[in-house]
Amino acid sequence: MSEPSGAGRYAPSPSGDLHLGNLRTALLAWLFARHSGRRFLLRVEDLDRVRPGAEQRQLADLAAIGLDWDGPVVRQSERLDRYRAAVDELTAADRTYECFCTRREIQQAASAPHGPMGAYPGTCRALTFAQRAARLTEGRPAALRLRAEVGEFEIIDELHGRYRGRVDDVVLRRGDGMPAYNLAVVVDDAAQGIDQVVRGDDLLPSTPRQAYLATLLGLPIPRYAHVPLVLNADGQRLAKRDGSVTLADRLRRGDTVEEVVSALTRSIGHSARTPTQLLASFEPAELSRQPWTFDDNRLLQPGSCP
Ligand SMILES: [Zn+2]
Predict the structure, then answer these.
(1) If you measure from the C-alpha of residue 104 to the centroid of ligand 1, how many angstroms do you get, rounded to a whole number?
(2) Could you tell me the distance, in angstroms and rounded to a whole number, from the CA of residue 109 to the centre of ligand 1?
(3) Residue 124 C-alpha to ligand 1 middle, in angstroms?
(4) How much distance in Å is there from the Cα of 159 to the middle of ligand 1?
(5) For 142-151, b where at least 16 C-beta lie within 10 A, e where not — what string?
(6) Beta carbons within 8 Å of 247's beta carbon, 6+ residues apart
């Protein structure tokens, strides 16, 4: 066996406990990575809301369901220099501009109601010197945006095939000076040697923007697999309010870790008691494209999952 090349990853935000949907996505990311002989890395995306103790509980839950990872856990808050350098590089190439818009102004001016997560209409792209000076005098905090030169970009996804999506002038540095999510993800994936990104398909619409940003920074575009989310009984993305959805919740209800893992593996269309056991029969191409609907009362019953 040769040394594995490339890496996959799971990158949780420590804003609370992982729920079963998060754990299932982590399990899938682990399976995709291990199945293809890649390393599996963990990255804590802690540039936003951080709940004290959440990171430790998340890592403990991932280990408890049988996932292992390679090397130390990386935290985005410890990598600000890298993001700053990437922004500086884009600015030096005249690919950025300051944006003084408030969230409300952007929503009101949004020209593309169906764009990904509130596509920015370009209001501040061509501010005159005087307009910019006036906004600075008002004390408005400026975000830094990418001056995108394409309106769309195409990526290839292992489950969705060719996917073409909108690219807008994405925020690179927030008004509070912190790096924006889309920039940090691109910089980190490349810096960590991650060439396989497996994550929830709610992030598919923002992927073309990230891939385009990677090309501007001269970074390789990873292989993507956007996996179906776990839904609640109403067909909405599973959330904490949907019952006993975290590992701790399930244990409190009297389930064992093995039963929870079994339910997760059944949701992937297999019957296994551990991730390692599941790995032996896992075939990425056979993964269901359909979301898994969580039923609080039937979680542990065989046949409750497709
Ligand atoms: Zn603006």
Answers:
(1) 11
(2) 10
(3) 4
(4) 35
(5) bbbbbebeee
(6) 17, 18, 20, 23, 61, 64, 65, 257, 260
For tokens 């990386």, the residue is 74
Predicted local confidence at residue 95, as pLDDT: 97
171 is catalytic: no
Predicted confidence (pLDDT) per residue in 204-257, tens digit = 999 999 999 999 999 999 999 999 999 998 889 998 888 889 999 999 999 999
- Those residues whose beta carbon sits under 5 angstroms from the ion ligand 1 are 99, 101, 123-124
Q: Are 115 and 168 in contact (CB under 8 A)?
A: yes
Tens of pLDDT, residues 148-179: 999 999 999 999 999 999 999 999 999 999 99
Q: From the CA of 180, how far away is ligand 1's center (Å)?
A: 15
d(CA 78, CA 173): 16
Active-site residue, selected from the candidate residues 49, 125, 164, 240: 240
**pTM score > 0.85 for this model?**
yes
In the sheet with 96-99, reading across from the earlier edge strand, the strands are 96-99, 143-146, 171-173
